[in-house]
Design a protein that fits this description.
Elements: H1 2-31, H2 37-47, H3 51-64, H4 67-83, H5 98-108, H6 112-124, H7 128-135, H8 145-153, H9 158-168, H10 172-184, H11 188-202, H12 219-229, H13 233-245, H14 249-255
Helix pairs in contact: 1-3, 2-3, 2-4, 5-6, 8-10, 9-10, 9-11, 12-13
Length: 260
């Protein structure tokens, strides 16, 4: 009887293990394909699913070689995102940095803000690959895909990664992966301690900090905040930069009527 019970338990557990293995295969297929985080994001809106589930669905279709339908779905999703900016990938979500924007501004002979705007338009049309080629950047390593997904799904932002990258003298991408690793390990306390240390350093090293524009906000946003706070543009920008520095960007989003 005891042996039969053990066999039954093993048998019951087998499908969940198989399902987990299948899910991992789907994520690996997604990571090694031409499809990106931003493709998964816009498709998640079309499919009414999470970004993680969208990645798995893309991977499943890649494995089954059912990419014709996938391409049609992606075309529909990109078209919807182009019409509705809320569905799009933001500049930093696509893995691009302020340094990239400065390079693009020189190449395109426009301001940094305009370069970011033009880059986001290209991203909205599915042009991440083109931007990466222009910048001479390689695609994100497949082995880091889950960590980056954890980072983007967490409360942490580009500016948090920039702080840690400055403290560690590493790339911002590596800092995102490190944060994502700790989020996956359910160890947010470690991230907070690291950010506290980084903020102490950043108080005497301005290059580690994010500006209002680094954080993805616009001049129109600062004008709206100035009216809300009844402050000058200059004072409002300084106040907003301080909030961003201390990880309170979500408060700004709420004031601007955006989803944090």
């Amino acid at each position: 009887m005891r042996l039969r019970n053990i066999v039954a338990v093993v048998a019951l557990g087998a499908p969940s293990v198989a399902a987990a293995d299948k899910r991992d295969d789907e994520f690996r297929a997604f990571s090694s394909s031409k499809y990106t985080y931003c493709d998964a994001k816009v498709l998640s809106s079309l499919w009414k699913s999470s970004i993680a589930d969208s990645k798995a669905t893309i991977g499943r279709k890649v494995i089954a070689r059912h990419t014709v339908g996938l391409e049609k779905n992606l075309e529909l999703a990109l078209d919807a995102a182009y019409k509705n900016p809320r569905l799009r990938c933001r500049y930093h979500e696509a893995g691009f940095t302020f340094e990239d924007a400065k390079k693009l501004s020189k190449m395109w002979r426009v301001s940094v803000a305009e370069a970011k705007t033009q880059a986001e338009e290209k991203i909205a049309g599915g042009g991440e690959g083109v931007l990466n080629e222009i910048l001479g950047k390689k695609a994100v390593a497949a082995s880091n895909e889950k960590e980056l997904e954890a980072f983007f799904s967490s409360k942490y932002r580009y500016c948090d990664a920039k702080l840690l990258a400055g403290m560690w003298k590493s790339s911002i991408e590596d800092a995102k992966v490190s944060i994502g690793t700790k989020v996956m390990a359910k160890n947010p306390g470690a991230v907070e301690r690291l950010l506290n240390d980084a903020r102490k350093q950043a108080q005497t090293n301005a290059s580690m900090r994010c500006s209002f524009y680094d954080a993805g906000y616009t001049y129109e946003d600062i004008e709206r905040l100035a009216k809300i706070w009844k402050k000058s543009i200059t004072d409002s920008k300084a106040f907003a930069n301080d909030k961003i520095f201390w990880g309170l960007g979500a408060n700004l989003d709420r004031l601007l009527g955006r989803k944090p």
